[in-house]
Amino acid sequence: MNNNNENKTKTENENKKIAHNNENSISDTYVIAAHISSIVFEMVIPVLLGIGLDYLLGTVVFFAIIGAIGGTILAFTQLIKIANKYS
Fold it and tell me: Would you state the pLDDT for residue 85?
């Protein structure tokens, strides 16, 4: 009878560990999604601002190119920080 209770307790503990691991993987997924969206915004917003400046100042694509280069630099620095954090 005592062996049955021990097996039941072990099974309950294993189920709790599995549930805890699933919660961690879900929160990790949200963190990764937040990182990806921030990188996308860091690449898109400078380009859009550059296009807006080009429109206001009457230049062709000068500020849009600067925005694309700046956004790419920002995104890569963010990627390097994230890679260093998880390695």
Answer: 82
